[in-house]
Amino acid sequence: MQKKVYFLAGAAVIIIAVVVGACWHFQGPKTGVQVGVPSEKEGLSQTEKLLNQETGSLSQDISDLEIIAEDENLETLEGDLSAVSGETPLEQELPSTPGIDVGEVESLESELSAELDGISSDLTDLEGLEEDASLDSLDASLSGLAE
Amino acid sequence: MKNLNKFIIRCLVGVMALGLLASAASATSLRTRHQEARAKYQAARAQYLKEVNWWKTTRQQFVNARAKYRKFKNAGNKAAYEKQARVFLEKTVNVLIKKLESLKNWVSNRPSLPESERQAIVAEIEQDINWLKSKKSGIATASPAQIREKAKEIREYWRNHRVRVKRIIGQIWAARLGWAIERFESVSSKVSAKIEELKAAGKDTSQLEAWLADFNQKIETAKEKKDKAREKYQAISSLADANQFFKQAHQFIKEANQSLREAHKKLVDIVKEMKRLAALAETEGE
């Protein structure tokens, strides 16, 4: 957008320059008339011819400048260059590539896998604690002591 | 321009690779913590089993001394019998304390139990340990009548203890599964957010959504089973019904565990599909 403004301002400067040039050009023959060499009709014809040429040239320039202003081939260049230079994060410059951070989900999957392994080993431990038969004779032994 | 795009895409692939490395590190750290907790428990368990062997030896010595006294009733045999009775009673208290300490060790070193429940269970176990320690004092100088009295109390405690251990294990199990279920639920919401991102990027997420619904359903089933198991554990009140309730609760726990495993399988499918879509996006980017 900013570039377009610059190009249009440039175009306006060129137009002004052309108009000033034309005025200056037309002032030349007037001075000549004062000297008294060419007739008035010839002067007008020359002026018309020159004006036509300038108008054609001006149209061409405007058309060229419009093409330059509307060129979008390098629209993302500024962003791309600032990303490469590290001024802005790369992700912001690539809206067309979605932020598919599969690594994050994959990480969670691995953690849950580890969690399931942990559950299995905990299940084994707790079964061992519950089924502990080491002290099965304790009740009978204590009965012997209590006699 | 094309080269620049390629460069940026390669950078993105690098970031994803770093993410994968971080994921592997995170899972490894969880596994390491589980292994460390298990190693500590196994050391405590080994200590307990060592104490069991001492207890068995002392028990045999007590039985021998008693048989000898019954056969030859004299002052020397009586004194030996009383001495062995004191030693055996002391060893009995010790072995029970070691058994409780191994259970306490298991609970307190477990990273995968909610802090509040872990503290409550540990406090309950410590209460038992303290009670046993109080019974231990004075055994060395106890009279035969005092030995008989203490033996009766500890036998009563032991009968209740077996019921209590079943209930405590049930409590631990419900808390342990509750912890795992919460983690699964947290993953579910993150996967859901990721699917939304993909959808916003114009990807076809219908398959992912169907699998996520399955994933959530499995978690829900696990939660229901865990709640049923908790009900059964809480119903344990006497030795008579302890085994029956414990078996039923144990079955629910196994089913809950199975549901979580099935949910995890769905998650593996989800990750594969997301990777496929990511690869597709990368191709489009090029």
Give a nutshell description of this structure.
The complex is a heterodimer of chains A (147) and B (286). By secondary structure, chain A is mainly alpha-helical. Chain A is 75% helix and 0% strand.
Structure description:
The complex is a heterodimer of chains A (147) and B (286). Chain A is mainly alpha-helical and 147 residues long. Helices cover 75% and strands 0% of the residues of chain A. Chain A contains five helices and no strands. In chain A, helix 1 (2-35) packs antiparallel against helix 2. The radius of gyration of chain A is 45 Å and the shape is rod-shaped. Chain A starts with a helix and ends with a helix. Residues 28-38 and 67-98 of chain A have low confidence and may be disordered. Chain B is an all-alpha fold and 286 residues long. Chain B has two domains: 32-137; 165-286, no CATH class. Chain B is 91% helix and 0% strand. Chain B is elongated, with a radius of gyration of 29 Å. Chain B starts with a helix and ends with a helix. The chains are: A mainly alpha (147), B mainly alpha (286). At the A-B interface, helix 3, helix 4 and helix 5 of A face helix 1, helix 2, helix 4 and helix 6 of B.
Keywords:
heterodimer, A: 147 residues, mainly alpha, 75% helix, B: 286 residues, 91% helix
- Summed up, the helix count of chain A is 5
DSSP strand count of chain A: 0
- Helix % of chain A is over 70%
Helix content, binned percent of chain B = over 70%
| SS-based class of chain A | mainly alpha
Distance between the termini of chain A: 102 Å
Structurally, the number of domains of chain B stands at 2
Low-confidence stretches of chain B: none
End-to-end separation of chain B: 11 Å
User: Tell me about the biggest sheet of chain B?
Assistant: none
Q: Would you list the SSEs of chain A in sequence order as H and E?
A: HHHHH
Return Rg of chain A in Å: 45 Å
**What's the total number of strands of chain B?**
0
Bulk shape of chain A? rod-shaped
